[in-house]
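Hey, can you fold this one?
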Amino acid sequence: MKANRAYELRVSRGAPTAMIEVLEIGSGEIALFWDVRQDQARRFAGALRTDLAQLEAGDFLDKWARWEQS
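Sure. Predicted structure:
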C-alpha cells in the first residue's frame, strides 16, 4: 500500500518553528513528528509529500523514522 493511503501529513506553522506531523489514517495517532525552523518547513514538507506519493507505507516509515531520531 502506498504511504499516502496509510498516512496523512499535517503542518502547523507557529513562531519560530513549524510542527510537522505524520498521522496514521486508520488510528489518527501520530507516527512521526518534527519541530523545524520556519525557513525549512516548506522544503521538509515537500520532501515528505513526495515520498508519501512514491514509497510503500513501510518503506516511508523506515526512511523518515531515521530523521525523527536525529
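The CA atoms of residues 1 and 56 lie 6 Å apart. Let me know if you want another pass with a different chain boundary.
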